[in-house]
Amino acid sequence: AEARATSEGQLPGAAAMGTGTPPSPSGTAFEETRLHVFTLDYPHVQIPFEITLWILLASLAKIGFHLYHKLPSIVPESCLLILVGLLLGGIIFGAEEKSPPVMNSDVFFLYLLPPIVLDAGYFMPTRLFFENFGTIFWYAVVGTLWNAIGIGISLYGICQISAFGLTDITLLQNLLFGSLISAVDPVAVLAVFENIHVNEQLYILVFGESLLNDAITVVLYNLFKSFCQMRTIKVIDIFAGIANFFIVGIGGVLIGILLGFVAAFTTRFTHKIRVIEPLFVFLYSYLSYITAEMFHLSGIMAITACAMTMNKYVEENVSQKSYTTIKYFMKMLSSVSETLIFIFMGVSTVGKNHEWNWAFVSFTLLFCLIWRALGVFVLTQIINVFRTIPLTFKDQFIIAYGGLRGAICFSLVFLLPPAVFPRKKLFITAVIVVIFFTVFIQGITIRPLVEFLDVKRSNKKQPAVSEEIYNRFFDHVKTGIEDVCGHWGHNFWRDKFKKFDNKYLRRLLIRENQPKSSIVSLYKKLEIKHAIEMAESGMISKVPSSVSLSDYHEGKIKPLSPTEMENMREILTKNLYQIRHRTMSYNRHSLAADASEKQAKEILIRRRHSLRESLRKTNSLSRERPVLVFYGVFW
Amino acid sequence: LSREDFQRIPELAINPLGDRIINAFFPEGEDQVNFRGFMRTLAHFRPIEDNEKIKDQNGPEPLNSRSNKLHFAFRLYDLDKDDKISRDELLQVLRMMVGVNISDEQLGSIADRTIQEADQDGDSAISFAEFVKVLEKVDVEQKMSIRFLH
């Protein structure tokens, strides 16, 4: 400071006097520094450098796992990443003898969490989500409440037993702890369920619950935290809490939807500047998240609502390349975030913020499991009365078992103010144990359990190639009949929304010239494509090969060797057309939409004759009715 | 309803078996189906209820019995209505369900294999009884049932 003062004083002095050497940049006026040929200036780039190194490390770790191709199928990636984090944390701890940088809760909530939720919300199968919305909502709200209060009260009961040395933890603190540990975590659920390929229905139940319970978690957490800090609690406060829940949930969703519409509207005008179209998608969704966080509303619900709204309209407005960019960039961001989260969790575990207490930790774990299982069971009994397809015991088991805790409760526990919570370290330890248990043990065992349960269901396996064909055949038939009777579509609200959508929203949010030209241009595209295919592959021969002919004439068909059978099954599984999205298994890391687009085009090409006939007939029969056969099909 | 009305359903347009399904609604040789006929076809897909034991053993089997569901599926294969699925008919359905990447030879051998697994009387075609036998372990009730009007 002294040097700086003198240099400052020197400058005007030197200028006035015009004598003496000007002060060197380092501030010491009385030293001359030679010109440095080579300098190392780490503090200048420290922050971006470290961030880049972390991300690089995370990505390299991911590569490392997939080198041994069997590993990711046995152990979910999240476990491996936590292990890497633990290792790193251990190294840092050993090297510097102090607790390594704990994951900053702000960094987590503001930077690492939104991309994952955005990615999940954007690619969420909306139809299935809304059909199961009642169930999801029921599980999320009532289930989380049940868990939170149950765990809180039972832990309080345990704390009362003086033998464990926990009597200083009050009921409110226990309730707060219960509320933050009962939240099912979307990041962990995604990471684990991605590997085991359960059917979409089950996946959407667990994942939807993990998204929607954010509202409840936010409310309960803030509620109990304020209660802990207030002296007296009046009844009015409880009602304020309930009102807060509605505001938090609905407010978040409204912000998301509003910004989703604005984003869709913006993309209506971007056809001249295609290059920055993806940017709008990301900006608006992130904006919705932080706006919601600003008002202490549920950011996760906001960004989910925004993504789901945007998805419908933005897809029609942006160019194909922008759409691909959005998809890949989103996947990349969410992948990186997820990796970082798990590594940080591992790193933050090592250190000195732990306090071990056998009773508290083990009972926490026990109660988490018990209350989750009880909750799912009881709630399912109630909700099955209202459901069209009741949930079986296997479904219930998977739902209960899939209630994984993760980084959200981890960050929430770090956010507890230590002044109000003298036993904060105890809480941290308990949370870490629960998270590790759910992620490691439940994560690793869920896959064999899923397979085990499945094997029980279908008792005898038919070693037949025809099985594949018949199954797919039945699926196609059922899907077709469902479409004929409009089974999935006659939901009253859905129709109403569709009408409203078509009348107002689409006209407002989607660029004008799309609907009219798309049919004609699409039909032309199909014709050209078919012509090219025929030219490239030559005519597909209709004459059966001589080999199969001779066998046929002989009247017997030679038995196939196992390898040939395997080949056949492989060919079939790869090439049989998929039925509609609805029952495909869900995989986050692959973009399955391309396959079904290709498939739809192939089928349409093949059927173009019969469809053209019908088009011609309708054109001649009724000219007023718009020919929208293809429009509904193609997005 | 006419065939064109069905073909206007977008999802049916991209269903590989769309044409066959539409044909299933129309009785022999007719181009129009009334509501009754429409309902008859859809009735095949009612879920089988466990507690609804066959009250009158003498009366006709309900349309949604397992046997009738299988019959419906069988008729989708069997275009010429000779109560047998010949190799050609099977090939046709297979070709409809499968992408453009499979050659005719491969498809032929798959069809042969399918027939061989089902065929018991050696006529290189699948009769209805053989069809039922092959599918006895498949949960047809689940696959061919839709809960209507929920």
From TrEMBL, chain A:
It holds the Pfam family Na_H_Exchanger. Residues 542-626 form the Sodium/hydrogen exchanger regulatory region domain. The chain crosses the membrane at residues 51-68, 74-95, 107-124, 136-159, 171-196, 202-224, 236-266, 286-307, 359-386, 398-420, 426-450. InterPro entries: Cation/H_exchanger_CPA1 (IPR018422), Cation/H_exchanger_TM (IPR006153), NaH_exchanger (IPR004709), NHE-2/4 (IPR001953), NHE_CaM-bd (IPR032103). GO terms for cellular component: apical plasma membrane. GO terms for molecular function: potassium:proton antiporter activity; sodium:proton antiporter activity. The keyword Repeat does not apply. Keywords: Antiport, Cell membrane, Ion transport, Membrane, Sodium, Sodium transport, Transmembrane, Transmembrane helix, Transport. It is found in: Apical cell membrane. Signal peptide: none annotated. It is a multi-pass membrane protein. Residues 1-27 are annotated as: Disordered. Its main location: membrane. Residues 55-451 form the Cation/H+ exchanger transmembrane domain. GO terms for biological process: regulation of intracellular pH; sodium ion import across plasma membrane. It comes from the Eukaryota. Belongs to the monovalent cation:proton antiporter 1 (CPA1) transporter (TC 2.A.36) family. This is Sodium/hydrogen exchanger. The gene is Slc9a2_0.
TrEMBL record, chain B:
Transmembrane segments: none annotated. InterPro entries: Calcineurin_B_homologous, EF-hand-dom_pair, EF_Hand_1_Ca_BS, EF_hand_dom. Residues 65-100, 106-141 form the EF-hand domain. Keywords: Calcium, Cell membrane, Cytoplasm, Lipoprotein, Membrane, Metal-binding, Myristate, Nucleus, Phosphoprotein, Protein transport, Repeat, Transport. One of its GO terms (biological process) is protein transport. One of its GO terms (cellular component) is plasma membrane. SUPFAM superfamilies: EF-hand (SSF47473). Its main location: membrane. The keyword Metal-binding applies. GO terms for molecular function: calcium ion binding. It is found in: Cell membrane; Cytoplasm; Nucleus. It comes from the Eukaryota. SMART domains: EFh. Belongs to the calcineurin regulatory subunit family. CHP subfamily. This is CHP1 protein. It comes from Acrocephalus arundinaceus (Great reed-warbler). The gene is Chp1.
